[in-house]
Amino acid sequence: MIKVAINGYGTIGKRVADAVAAQEDMEIIGVSKTRPSSEALVANKRGYPLYIADISKKPAFEAAGIKVAGTVEEMIAACDVVVDATPGGIGKNNRALYEKAGKKAIWQGGEDHEVAGFSFNSSCNYADAIGRQFARVVSCNTTGLCRIINAVDKAFGVKKVRATMVRRGADPGDPKRGPVDAIVLNPVTIPSHHGPDVQTVLPHINIVTTALVVPTTFMHMHILSMDLKKKATKQEIVDLINAHPRIGLIRHGLGITSTAEIKEYASDLLRPRSDLWESCIFEDSISVSEDNELYLFQAIHQEADVVVESVDAIRALVGNVKDADKSIAMTNKALKFEAI
Ligand code: NAD
Known about the structure:
This protein is α/β, with parallel strands linked by helices. The chain has helices at about 10-20, 40-45, 60-65, 70-80, 95-100, 120-130, 140-155, 195-200, 235-245, 260-270, 305-320, 325-335; strands at about 1-5, 25-35, 50, 70, 80-85, 105, 120, 135, 160-170, 185, 205-215, 220-230, 245-250, 280, 285-290, 295-300.
């Protein structure tokens, strides 16, 4: 069993912990929090040993009825791999801790590529991650872009990509950012950072991206166009999506035309936390122009798509499963992740 520690048990960390605990070849040896909270209490209830960065805060945790197992350093010492899911920009400060302990570590997309020197997406570059000490799972938006661009590139060749990300303003459980009654250019400059981020995984892809933030919490929406090298039909693109283990098709005829309805669908399917680990491509949006340009809309559940990637990244770093398809299938099966 691979012993996994989760440093930062928040939106992403708690989901990765549950996904790891469900795998037959992994176990959670600890998760960490900085302050007492309902999430910390849930970690206790799940049976995940809870470690804290500042041991002087232990009485505050205990006063809230939350058991503390020890310090973050003790947690790191006990693991084989640490998944760092601390807030973006904080994780890089932990690199020295992991290096000193000689542990493998996986960061999330809020950190720059340089934190690990290797950016990961299981469908694109699993084999290149095998045996590495460090990897960074790219952000939710970059994950969604990489999955479809790589699949289409392998089948038809991609000359160039243009993509606009309509981004959620905050996660549903985050009261700090609040509703913003505006469309915020994010950033106002063009291109956005997402194109170069895709190139950390797929360096040969010609891509320009733009992004804006809107007052919603459910999901992001991507408007994508790709110039293809080989002629493709809509049906061939649909077949490609149906064959991909991490891309779902919002089928024609279901009446779904919004992120709200996708989330309701996931909730009705009894997905845990109504999570959508797959990119959700609207079948009705897929079209290929006469001059061979592919267009589509895809919705990305920001809290979930990187979770399954993080589980695969653990296997790749440890090297116990050498084949990407095998790891992806193991991860999906353990989560009872069936096509939407
Ligand atoms: P979050 O704020 O929900 O959770 C972070 C957790 O880290 C908190 O629970 C907090 O207790 C803990 N923490 C804070 N400071 C810490 C410290 N110094 N040491 C240890 N733990 C600390 O953040 P999140 O949304 O889960 O984001 C985590 C990472 O995942 C970031 O890199 C982010 O960019 C990335 N990410 C987030 C999303 C998303 O939509 N939320 C999507 C993809 C990737």
